[in-house]
Amino acid sequence: MATGARDEFKLGPQEGIIFPVNETHVVIFEEHSDYLMIKSKQSDPQSPDTYAYPVV
């Protein structure tokens, strides 16, 4: 993040969020959750656009 700006959201059941395109974001689940990620482009294993974020 060039500006260092941060936002934090806590979502309840059946809630969601839309992320701006080309903006870095991290999703941390505080409990077991099912989720659906809808993307604007088809996934390409040769050029991935999602990365694991290890939380320690």
Describe the structure.
By secondary structure, this protein is low in regular secondary structure. It is globular. The mean pLDDT is 80.
Largest sheet: none
Q: Mean of the pLDDT scores?
A: 80
The radius of gyration over CA amounts to: 13 Å
* Quaternary structure: single chain
Query: Helix count?
Result: 0
Tell me, briefly, the overall form. globular
Distance from first to last alpha carbon: 21 Å
Share of helix, binned:
under 10%
Strand content: under 5%
Count of extended strands? 0
Keywords for this structure?
single chain, 56 residues, little secondary structure, 0% helix
Helix/strand layout:
Blueprint: no helix or strand
Summarize the structure.
With 56 residues, this protein is mostly loops. It has no helix or strand.
